[in-house]
Design goal:
Blueprint lengths: L3 H19 L11 E5 L2 E4 L18 E4 L4 E4 L5 H14 L4 E5 L5 H4 L2 H7 L4 E3 L2 H7 L2
Helix pairs in contact: 2-4
């Protein structure tokens, strides 16, 4: 039996996977708002549904705290798109950089948005329980 068909199949599988990775889904386009809950403290209330293609994994309530040193984010969301959406809201509120992200626990809907913050703010500090960091291998 020839190995050529198997190699062609593997090549097609590789190319399909690479093209899917290159085509990142667009940012979340919704009417979510950053609601002010105290002076310089905001929350974006997420939907009450499980992750799906429409909400792109956004199903938590990210917090935004504007300090003298910069912006602190709590639980940036469940996808890079939700993280980008949180960044978009931050940019409407202040021109200060994000200096810290706190992940409250290991569930992905609270920390997978870290990627957007690490891309936009390479020096951002990510804080979480050491067991949570070990579990997700940040």
């Amino acid at each position: 039996m020839s190995k050529i068909p198997a190699l062609i199949g593997l090549l097609l599988l590789y190319l399909t996977g690479a093209s899917l990775q290159a085509a990142k889904a667009p940012a979340i386009d919704t009417e979510y708002t950053a609601d002010k809950i105290a002076e310089d403290v905001y929350v974006i209330h997420g939907p009450l549904e499980t992750p799906n293609p429409i909400n792109q994994g956004f199903m938590n309530n990210p917090g935004i705290i504007i300090t003298d040193a910069g912006v602190v984010v709590v639980d940036p969301g469940g996808s890079v798109q939700s993280g980008e959406m949180v960044i978009s809201h931050i940019e409407k509120l202040t021109d200060k950089p994000v200096v810290a992200v706190f992940d409250s626990h290991v569930h992905g809907d609270h920390w997978l948005g870290n990627q957007a913050f690490m891309e936009k703010y390479p020096e951002v500090k990510i804080y979480a329980h050491h067991e949570m960091i070990k579990a997700v291998k940040l």
